[in-house]
Amino acid sequence: MQTRTLGSTGPAVSALGLGAMGMSGAYGAADRTESIATVHAALEAGVTLIDTGDFYAMGHNELLLAEALDGRDRDSYQLSVKFGQLRGPGREFGGQDGRPEAVKNFLAHSLTRLGTDHIDIYRPARLDPAVPIEETVGAIKEMIDAGHVRHLGLSEVDAATIRRAHAVHPVADLQIEYSLLSRAVEADILPTLRELGIGLTAYGVLGRGLISGHWSVDRTAGAGDGRAFSPRFSSGNVEHNLALVEALRRVADVKGCTVAQLAIAWVAAQGGDDIVPLVGARTRERLAEALPALEVNLTADELAEIEKVVPPGAARGDRYPSAFMAGLGVGN
Q1: Which residues face 14 on adjacent strands?
Q2: Active-site pick, 56, 77, 122, 320
Q3: Least enclosed by CB within 10 Å: which of 146, 166, 256, 311?
Q4: Per-residue pLDDT reduced to its tens digit, 242-301
Q5: How many Å apart are CA 204 and CA 178, to the nearest integer?
Q6: Does an H or E element contain 36, and which?
Q7: Are 5 and 12 in contact (CB under 8 A)?
Q8: 296: which residues sit within 8 A by CB, 6+ positions away?
Q9: Is 56 one of the catalytic residues?
């Protein structure tokens, strides 16, 4: 497994990370036994970076990971944890909470659920507009100084917020959506990260399965699957977006890889060693397909061909429902 260092101050991690959200019902029912087996398979393949959020199914995801990681050498993997998203009993979203006292409260619960004494990278899931980022980051810095957290991360914030946070404490990485369908980070975010020596962990590299090569126009999101509310999967948009996938498939066929591998390899190729794609595999089959993407080396001509068939802005539909778009640091 290749490794990459998250920024100039962050940890060395596997060049591909595992996003665990889908193991807790975000895309419909998931098999607990298969989820745990997938975590084990990822670790055995050399994946060390595992990403979760304390609000993924109200702590379910952290408890699942605690079970999957039980007995493993704690120094053999890194946990990236997002916090701050408020949820109701019906799992409805209720905004963000970045108050210093809330940061410490969220952290205490995560440490207990995960069965660990520290979080490797701790990050607010979204910016709390009512709390200056300096206060939120200041609380995380206190937890770093106390040994409960190793590194500061951010998620889905703009360039100005990154600078303000970094002035309080060095930021290891920014987690943000980045894929062939979502390229807004290229204008201001990526240059800012590189100027400041901050890494990027890219989620949504397969567009929540849309550009995995496994979605079809006649497929519908099942019960509990958040993609039912995604504009890019809606009727009228999904047909257009899947046409882009078929264009990618032709490039992938020539390259001798799958569409998913091509899409992951494209994200990894957008940096030197400062971008780590997160793959939300929830089965060993999907993980096994994703892992070889690190061996897909794209030439300048192949990158140009990919750019030709899926140029910036080619996707139809926002990456989140309209109610969530305003809380993002960048758009599509």
Answers
A1: 3
A2: 56
A3: 256
A4: 999 999 999 999 999 999 999 999 999 997 789 999 999 999 999 999 999 999 999 999
A5: 6
A6: helix 32-44
A7: yes
A8: 255, 257, 261, 262, 264, 265
A9: yes
